[in-house]
Amino acid sequence: MMSRMFRFTNKYKRPLHLPRPVLSLISCKMDRWVGKVAIVTGASSGIGAATVQALARVGMTVVGLARRAERVEELKKSLPPDVGSRIHAFRCDVTSEESIVNAFGAVERQLGGVDVLINNAGVSKQSCTLLTPGNSDDLRTVLDTNVMGLVLCTREAFQSMKRRQSAGHIVNINSILGHKYVPFPNLNLYMASKYAVTAITETLRNDLRNEGTKVKVTSISPGIVRTEMIPEGNQFADTPMLDAEDIVGAILYALGTPAHVQVHEVIIKPVGEMA
Ligand SMILES: NC(=O)c1ccc[n+]([C@@H]2O[C@H](COP(=O)([O-])OP(=O)(O)OC[C@H]3O[C@@H](n4cnc5c(N)ncnc54)[C@H](OP(=O)(O)O)[C@@H]3O)[C@@H](O)[C@H]2O)c1
Question: Is Membrane there in the keyword field (predicted)?
Answer without folding.
Answer: no
